[in-house]
């Protein structure tokens, strides 16, 4: 038997790529079903108050309408998740909240009739306005009690105030990032069917197991009575990780029309209030350093918002304790509970907004110390993780910065602002660091079954959200089994397969791959002991859990990267162009160079979008996002993007997982906006600390 060529490292096309571009890989809503009905949501027109009366008579009388759902006739649910308590009371807690639904024979009738449902409200004053000042608003700010995993929300080491007071060089800057809305190409959709004793749900999600548990819990069903299927997903970016009201409403509707599949798609406008968002932040960074640039103190504070029905805390300061050596450090966060929809995770939750502030502040410190910003970061490179005091399993930030500088042509660089120009355009360059933790989510299992043809069937309820998971995970499985990739048939996206953690936190390959490795190890062991290691036995099957990482308490585990940008700013109009972005990343082994490059490229493009274009604009009078479509919510388009180069350095980290991978989904966006903001400063001498950098802020 010859040793198969390792599948990891091969730039394979996505297995479903051709089907996707031919329209043969249906998304949830497109799945052909017999005799469907259609659901359309009714949304509140006030932000806070109580529904005092409902008049469904006109809607119900509309030919083709089958039922109108409101809190008066909705099934009672069993859940303490405020996001899922849909239609459980007359209370309204944010504008656009789902307060009803219309089921009809066609989508047009459902939508039309939804507009005929009349609700009277007793309205109360609302507060949707996040403010950046801690002292004046401390009474309504809370220290969050539920946060993203792994890192403590507040950290403190040494005496930051004393160190700042005696520091030779100080930076004290305030930054803000706006409310960002996820805009997956495929909106949130569901086809829900009540089968008599349970649900079949086809929907667009990042985690079929999580949806299954949430729906089963809310409707008091055994999880085996809820089947969730999600083979193809058209983007998610965090917005499809946690179950929300839309899934519950679809399931409730299905209960009313047994046997008939209920098709439900949020409109693009509805996704702006229903699917979560990256909360706006106000951040303050204080840095103290010696005149040689060595940090003596780092302080990073953030104020964010959450809703009143479920707490979500963006962890904007999470990356800071992992970045630079300084004996005195403090991070603190507060959340304001406002009358808004609940925010959620969005690509690099925490790092994306937090590293904009920290890496802008580092640029300001470099200027204050008259040091090259790359040299400043190298001087502050820690020997061990500054907070956990553990060695890094691998840390190649300096290598990324140096490799990036070489490829980008950083040297020779005159740091003087406005020093370079081309006609009426000012030219500047900027750099920023990136990081993202290596996370392993609990709760995954993988089954491997040997088929009659000697092929290996790998089953796991993972999800491919458009990233190429199906392909990359098959590569992982082939190497775990030490067989040729043609021998492996991997199936995912169905809750009847062994449970899996969500596709999120850049932890998919780590969490699922570790389970597949465990199953493959056990399978090969059984083949050896029971079958002499010769012919795979038909029907042999092994199921294994994701094991805990034995090195978790010995090493800090992070990806790192360096982002570079060149900008051109029109001196008269303030127009900003970004002809060049370059990123160098250290993300462990790269499973599939083609799909990994796409992830990093996509992240950097979003970083450009974050720097220059995106913001959800709130109408404070009514409490909702007014630019709630793709015509008004500006996202970087092809014409905005210049040359983007993606590189990575070889990294072989034996501690992170059996694949030696670190995850590539999130880190591409981290630091990208700071690199552009730093380049804008270099070009113009104007420091923009409030994103997005629009031309009015430069003039
Ligand atoms: Mo990612 S924001 O964890 O889907």
From TrEMBL:
Keyword presence, Acetylation: no
Residues of the Aldehyde oxidase/xanthine dehydrogenase a/b hammerhead domain: 22-125
Keyword Oxidoreductase in record: yes
InterPro entries in alphabetical order: Ald_Oxase/Xan_DH_a/b, Ald_Oxase/Xan_DH_a/b_sf, Ald_Oxase/xanthine_DH-like, AldOxase/xan_DH_MoCoBD1, AldOxase/xan_DH_MoCoBD2, AldOxase/xan_DH_Mopterin-bd_sf
A family per Pfam: MoCoBD_2
Keywords of the record: Molybdenum, Oxidoreductase
Coiled coil: none
Protein name: Xanthine dehydrogenase family protein molybdopterin-binding subunit
Provenance organism: Micromonospora parastrephiae
